[in-house]
Write a structure and sequence with these properties.
- It is a single chain.
- 26% of the residues lie in helices and 34% in strands.
- The protein is an alpha+beta fold.
- Strands 1, 2, 3, 4, 5, 6, 7, 8 and 9 form a 9-stranded antiparallel β-sheet that branches.
- Helix 4 packs across helix 5.
- It is elongated.
C-alpha cells in the first residue's frame, strides 16, 4: 500500500517544516542507492549579461546555512558568481526517481573552512588546484602536465601544500527548495519550500 503524508504526497516527503532535514534524509538514501557520486549536482549560474551556464559540481557540505561546494575562483563559474551571486542547483537521483531543486544566493566560505576542506584533499588534487588555470584555454595538454610537474617540484612535501588564494568555497543560501518524485503517466509529486524575509519556511504543492 502506498502510504501518504499529511499533504497527500508519498510518505518519502515526510512531514517536516525544515527542508534541510528532508534533504538530509533524501541524501542519506541516495548515498545507499546511487552507484557514483550521490553528491553530484548541476550548478546553474549566469554572467553580468544574464547568459546562463550550467555544469556538474560536487556538494561537499550542507547545513542550516546552505549548500557548500569548492572551485577555482577564477574559473568561469567563479567569475560569474562574483558578478551575479544568484544561483540554482539540481540534484537528480535516478536510482530513487527523485530530484531536488534549490535556488538562492551565494557567499564565500571563510578561509578557515576552506583550509580545513582543502587539507582533506589528496596530494594530486591539491597540486591540481595550483596547476590548473580552470576554464582557461590550453595551448596543448602538455602545458597542463608540465605545470603539474613544476608544482610538484615546488611542493615536494605532500603534507605541506598550502591552499592557493584563488581556490575556495561558496555557500548557496537557499530561498526555495523543491522536492520532486517521479509519478506514473508523468503525474509527478512536487513539494516546494519557500523562505520568507524572517527566515521562516512555508510549503506549497506544485502541479506536475
Amino acid at each position: 500500500m502506498n502510504q501518504k503524508n499529511s499533504l497527500g504526497l508519498n510518505s518519502c516527503f515526510l512531514d517536516l517544516n525544515d527542508p534541510m532535514q528532508l534533504f538530509k534524509v533524501w541524501m542519506d538514501e541516495a548515498k545507499k542507492t546511487e552507484p557514483n557520486d550521490p553528491n553530484a549536482v548541476a550548478l546553474a549560474t549566469s554572467d553580468k549579461k544574464n547568459l546562463p551556464s550550467v555544469r556538474m559540481v560536487l556538494l561537499k557540505d550542507f547545513n542550516e546555512y546552505g549548500f557548500v561546494f569548492y572551485t577555482n575562483l577564477n574559473s568561469q563559474k567563479g567569475i560569474e558568481l562574483k558578478e551575479n551571486p544568484n544561483a540554482s542547483m539540481c540534484f537528480h537521483w535516478k536510482s530513487l526517481l527523485r530530484q531536488v531543486r534549490i535556488s538562492g544566493s551565494v557567499s564565500s566560505v571563510s578561509d578557515k573552512v576552506a583550509d580545513q576542506y582543502y587539507n582533506t584533499r589528496g596530494y594530486e588534487s591539491r597540486i591540481g588546484a595550483w596547476a590548473s588555470k580552470q576554464s582557461k584555454v590550453l595551448s596543448s595538454r602538455d602545458e597542463l602536465i608540465n605545470s603539474i610537474k613544476d608544482y610538484k617540484k615546488k611542493f615536494e612535501d605532500q603534507n605541506n601544500v598550502p591552499r592557493p588564494s584563488h581556490w575556495s568555497g561558496w555557500n548557496l543560501s537557499p530561498l526555495t527548495i523543491e522536492f520532486w518524485l517521479d509519478g506514473e503517466s508523468r503525474i509527478h509529486e512536487r513539494l516546494k519550500y519557500s523562505k520568507d524575509s524572517n527566515g521562516i519556511w512555508s510549503q506549497s504543492l506544485l502541479s506536475p
